[in-house]
């Protein structure tokens, strides 16, 4: 199988399983990734997903050999994207567990995720700059929103490699971990996130994303509406009762 999935309680791991080509994504792989994340979003028993690459690399981008041989990835403007799920906006968070190369379209898949956990040996970059392959899976959009326009243009125009220390400094990654540990550490992070009241967490996450396209006043009003949806759901009063009973005090989690 070019893509494998695993459910472990409320954590869902999606693995690109083409290590012989550094997990490059061909047409079939892209569709399988798209369908895997649709399944995750529809399953009410799942809270957090992890995207990972088998065999020491996250993803080296689109399969250019398949493209050269006349089997390109899907290029329609709606539905499944060239790399698969990158046009989806899910209701729940996804963590990228990055080892080795996360470049070109693979870099775009990492950017699509909410958080990125990178091993010391990871490499990020717009390596497709060398071959006239455009960023078409959200790279020009998401990179600037994550690290700012100046840093995004530096990576996009030069195609240079960015390593974990710099990636952490610019906010591109959330954690830097030892080699061979990204999946384990991503799972720990996923479990931390999954333990929180999920309705509140998802509304706050959605408010962040929606606020990027709104004026300040509109974003503040949108945040209020999301907050009220949580409060009226009863989740907040339940949390207050837990606090009163002694849970979660003094910053404990």
How is this structure best described in words?
There is one protein chain. This protein has 253 residues and is an alpha/beta fold. It is 43% helix and 15% strand. The strands form two sheets. Strands 1-2-3-4-6-8 form a six-stranded mixed β-sheet, sandwiched between helices. A two-stranded parallel ribbon has the order 5-7.
Describe the global form.
Answer: globular
Number of strands: 8
Strand content: 5-15%
The residue-averaged pLDDT reads 94
Q: Looking across the biggest beta sheet, what order are the strands in?
A: 1-2-3-4-6-8
- What's the number of helices? 10
What is the distance, rounded to the nearest whole angstrom, between the alpha carbons of the first and last residues? 38 Å
In terms of quaternary structure, the protein is: single chain
Uncertain stretches of 5 or more adjacent residues: none
Element pattern in H and E: EEHEHEEHEEHHHEHHHH
Structural Rg: 19 Å
Major sheet attributes:
6 strands, mixed
Percent helix, as a range, is: 40-55%
Structural class of the helices, strands and pairings? alpha/beta
Briefly, what is this?
The chain has 253 residues and is α/β, with parallel strands linked by helices. The chain contains 10 helices and 8 strands.
Descriptive keywords:
253 residues; 10 helices; alpha/beta; two-stranded parallel sheet; 8 strands; globular; six-stranded mixed sheet
């Amino acid at each position: 199988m070019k893509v494998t999935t695993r459910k472990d309680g409320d954590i869902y791991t999606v693995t690109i399983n083409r290590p012989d080509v550094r997990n490059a994504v061909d047409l079939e792989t892209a569709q399988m990734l798209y369908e895997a994340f649709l399944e995750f979003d529809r399953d009410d028993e799942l809270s957090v997903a992890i995207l990972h690459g088998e065999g020491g690399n996250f993803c080296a981008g689109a399969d250019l050999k398949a493209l050269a041989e006349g089997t390109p990835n899907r290029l329609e403007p709606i539905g499944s994207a060239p790399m698969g799920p990158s046009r989806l906006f899910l209701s729940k968070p996804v963590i990228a567990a990055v080892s080795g190369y996360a470049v070109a379209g693979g870099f775009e898949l990492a950017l699509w995720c909410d958080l990125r956990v990178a091993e010391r040996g990871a490499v990020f970059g717009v390596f497709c700059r060398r071959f006239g392959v455009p960023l078409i899976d959200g790279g020009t959009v998401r990179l600037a929103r994550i690290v700012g326009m100046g840093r995004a243009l530096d990576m996009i125009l030069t195609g240079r490699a960015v390593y974990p220390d710099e990636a952490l400094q610019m906010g591109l990654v959330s954690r830097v971990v030892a080699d061979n540990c990204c999946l384990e550490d991503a799972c720990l992070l996923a479990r931390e996130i999954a333990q929180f009241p999920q309705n509140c967490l998802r509304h706050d996450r959605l408010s962040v994303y929606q606020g990027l396209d709104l004026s300040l006043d509109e974003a503040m009003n949108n945040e209020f509406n999301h907050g009220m949806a949580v409060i009226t759901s009863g989740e907040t009063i339940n949390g207050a009762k837990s606090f009163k009973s002694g849970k979660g005090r003094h910053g404990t989690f």
